[in-house]
Design a protein that fits this description.
five-stranded parallel β-sheet; 5 strands; 7 helices; 137 residues; alpha/beta; Rossmann fold
Length: 137
């Protein structure tokens, strides 16, 4: 079973129902629901997703959505080592470094994101959800 870190943008695609990307996000998380893949997110993803959702929804609705979503993923912690590695990295965006080092430190096999260019320094394979789903067919 593939062990995959899902970047925040794909989580928001699903939970905010972003039209252009919703179908592939739904397909990906359906695989998790059917126990065909093991999906992980960083704790940063939960915080950022809550913030984004709460901009257009009531806070209690945002939390309700995240509670339901949580059954599809395992949330990985941020610790001192991940923060230090991220601060010392050459990643352009600190948030992407946190995602990357969360995946690396937890021995994940793959990162899924819509922003491939942000992960060009990754030693772990990085794909879009769409490309990953095509590989699984």
């Amino acid at each position: 079973m593939d062990k995959i870190l899902v970047d925040t943008n794909i989580v928001i695609d699903l939970l905010a129902k972003r039209d252009k990307f919703l179908i592939e996000a739904q397909e990906l998380f359906t695989l998790s629901d059917r126990k065909k893949v093991k999906l992980y997110v960083s704790s940063l993803t939960f915080a950022n997703t809550h913030y984004i959702l709460s901009q257009s929804l009531k806070i209690e609705n945002s939390r309700k959505i995240l509670r339901r979503f949580k059954v599809l993923v395992e949330v990985l912690p941020m610790d001192d080592k991940i923060i230090d590695l991220s601060l010392d990295s050459e990643f352009k965006y600190f948030e992407d470094a946190i995602q990357y080092y969360t995946a690396l430190e937890n021995n994940l096999e793959l990162i899924l994101t819509r922003n491939l260019k942000d992960f060009k320094l990754s030693k772990i394979p990085v794909l879009t959800a769409k490309d990953y789903l095509q590989l699984k067919k």
